[in-house]
Predict the structure.
Amino acid sequence: MRSLGGIDDSLKEKLTADFRNADLSNDDILILEYAEKITKNPSSITNDDITRLLDFGFSQSAIHDMAQVTSYFNYVNRIADSLGVELETD
């Protein structure tokens, strides 16, 4: 069964519980680990984090995009939360 956004409900549950156990590719797990670190503790990002992504084959441009997209959504969510914006039900 597919749900909103085309994500399988069981995959959504696995992603919510722990994305590392959600049958994702190594690429996807690395991206999500980087996004998680940016979200939870951005000042902890080091050259080792970037080197790990580069060594796995991500370009500097791709890493830049990961940082930009993650940071943008963090920003938008913080603005919405701080203003008490309610999620739409549909």
